[in-house]
Amino acid sequence: MNKKFPENFLWGGAVAANQCEGAYDEDGKGLSIEDVTPKGIRGPITKEPTEENLKLKGIDFYHKYKEDIKLFSEMGFKVFRLSIAWTRIFPNGDEENPNELGLEFYDDIFDECHKYGIEPLVTISHYEMPLYLAKKYNGWSSRKTIDFFEKYVRTIFNRYKNKVKYWLTFNEINSIIHMPLLAGIMTPADKITKSEIYQAIHHQLVASALATKIGHEIIPNSKIGCMVIAVPIYPLTPDPEDVMTAFKADRENLFFTDVQVKGKYPFYIKRYFKENNIDLKIELGDEEILKNTVDFISFSYYMSACASSKSEENKKSGNMIMGVKNPYLKESEWGWQIDPKGLRYVLNTFYERYDKPLFIVENGLGAKDELIEDENGNKTVIDDYRIKYLNDHIIEIKEAIEDGVEVMGYTSWGCIDLVSASTAEMSKRYGFIYVDRNDDGSGTLSRYKKKSFYWYKELIETNGESLEK
Fold first, then answer.
1. Which Gene3D superfamilies does the entry mention (predicted)?
2. Sequence-ordered list of residues with C-beta below 8 angstroms from that of 248, at least 6 positions apart, any chain
3. What's the pLDDT tens digit per position in 227-262?
4. Which single residue of 253, 275, 295, 460 could bond 11 by disulfide (Cβ 3.0 to 4.6 Å)?
5. Which domains occur in the chain, in start order?
6. Is 164 helix (H, G, I), strand (E, B) or coil?
């Protein structure tokens, strides 16, 4: 049987506002958590924005979006995943009225996408908590943040109801367990308790379900999804203790999709809460709100991990998830283990568990690219390593589709080079398009097509038929 991608498969790329837009202090934008974390997602927080924070300028997508979307169109994008910066709409997060200039900016972006027949896929909250809310209310630790989020959500749904069909509520919502700062929680990670973490998680889950409910009411034909970090956890050995350790680690992540897809807290979480002295404050009406479930599941996939009941010696850090090093896998320059088959495994696991459409909205290889001149004098990057990584992973998507999994689309992460979320570097590049900016902030911000640009263009043109086994 000839394995094929569906005719309506949504090929595209993904970015986040805080990593690409720049213009942090233009047109009424307020400060977000990201504007004061110059070293990346692990902090520390500075008192005010500093020049060393590359995210403040990003790749100047704020002023260059027309040029960039035109390049995306040239590759043949069917969909473009981006996020709205909450602080462009409500600078502090608690204003009575939204910032019109911020609203107009996204109007212009969506219009530019539609000009080329590209569907926007919009993340409502992508690590862009207003700094004011983080400081005053400790972010999602406070119940009040739900109210501020609801106002923001109603504002953008009403404004863009005729321009955006596909929405995601929270980016990598399960990251809060490992990186609470990303959610705007100011309590240091080594001081915060599990009870405090899960109370903030509860507030986010209620807010996500509330956004889903509001979105379906305001935009009846909308498709609203959740978004999680997908990291399959393998037992390091056949030792039953390792198997059970991996099983429990898997559930830590599946908990988030269980709630957002099934509309209630799963049975197994009660024992976890009991054993970890977690006493949630669940208000009247919360359980009813949680019943507003998502239309599809989206996720990032970069790596798998192993779990062991015994060994802590080989712990690796990757995409915020700690795991034991897998002796059978190679790794990237940043130590992220490369496991294409893990993507097929994840797709099958999610589909079997939830029977909902799936969308891979982040996948890619961060690498140090070298800008060179080709034989025609054009600047480019010969990134065969990236092509191989993407080719091998997309083959596994094709296999999952043949398995019977319903996959909506694929958006490669950092389709244009941007500032890394984890390290706040420019040198960790993912894109099909090279941006001339360096870790010291220098560079012209000029755009250059990499070899992978043309590879992805052909992949989309052939709907995956150009993949190499």
1. Glycosidases
2. none
3. 999 999 999 999 999 999 999 999 999 999 999 999
4. 460
5. 10-461 (3.20.20.80)
6. coil
